[in-house]
Amino acid sequence: MKVKEVADLVGISVRTLHHYDEIGLLNPANTTESGYRLYDDRDLEMLQQILFFRELGFPLKRIKEIVGSPTFDRQAALELHRKMLLEKRDRLDEMIATVEKTIKHAKGEVRMTNSEKFKGFDFSGGNPYEQEARERWGDEAVDKANAKAANKEWQNEMGGKMNAVYAKLAELRHVSPESEEAQAAIKAWYDLLNEMGTYSLDAFKGLGQMYVDDPRFTKNIDQFGEGLAVFMRDAMAAYADRNRP
């Protein structure tokens, strides 16, 4: 299947599939002579696995480490996915019941205790799947992915740097994204992302496109200034194209 056919089948964007390929998470088995990606049944199985992990709250970097582990067992993973999704469904059912009872309480039809008002909420933090992931695929992959995330000082430092770059780019969003000042600012964004992970120029350009394709990205980024997501996409594309060897 070609990438557009897979995107239509699954209900995700072509850009998302390109991004998965660029970061080495899902590389299609073959390509045509013209360079078009071709996905086979095994690729579709892996994509399903990736999306199950995403549904359970795993970031792409961690998914790549887990499915790339030599001890990764797809059947065992599917069984764990089922278990965790059932638990998630039970918690959502409980929260729905809390909402419904709260509506009746607000109408004076029933009375709720204070503890009942918060039934179903879980603020314990962390990912409940993680311990089972450790047991199945070892601590190394999980610990590696968690090392920086667990460092609050590092998190705060990165958060401050990100906000500073966003603010700077927001100031420049009305100039040409290819201008020297815009490119200097977007280079700071590229360098910062590579402090937190590993981004090739292609992945950087693809990420910029996702800022526009995914409304969640657009909403968060445009909080710093209307149109910032589009400006960043264009500046990131220009930076990637300009700096290719």
Observed structural traits:
Globin-like; 245 residues; 3 domains; DNA binding; 12 helices; Multidrug-efflux Transporter Regulator, Chain: A, Domain 2; two-stranded antiparallel sheet; mainly alpha
CATH architecture of the largest domain: Orthogonal Bundle
- Separation of termini? 32 Å
User: Judging from the principal axes of the Cα atoms, what is the shape?
Assistant: globular
CATH H-level superfamily of the largest domain: Antibiotic binding domain of TipA-like multidrug resistance regulators
Helix-and-strand structural type: mainly alpha
What does this structure look like?
Residues 1-69 form the HTH merR-type domain. Keywords: Activator, DNA-binding, Transcription, Transcription regulation. GO terms for molecular function: DNA binding; DNA-binding transcription factor activity. It comes from Cohnella nanjingensis. By secondary structure, the protein is an all-alpha fold. It folds into 3 domains: 3-55, Orthogonal Bundle (Multidrug-efflux Transporter Regulator, Chain: A, Domain 2); 74-146, Multidrug-efflux Transporter Regulator, Chain: A, Domain 2 (Orthogonal Bundle); 152-242, Globin-like (Orthogonal Bundle), CATH 1.10.490. Helix content is 66%, strand content 2%. It contains 12 helices and 2 strands. It has helices at 3-10, 14-22, 41-55, 60-67, 74-106, 130-137, 139-146, 152-172, 180-196, 201-213, 215-221, 228-242; strands at residues 30-31, 37-38. The chain has a two-stranded antiparallel ribbon with strand order 1-2. A hairpin with a 5-residue loop joins β1 (30-31) and β2. α8 (152-172) runs antiparallel to α9. The longest helix has 33 residues, at 74-106. The model has no long low-confidence stretch (mean pLDDT 82).
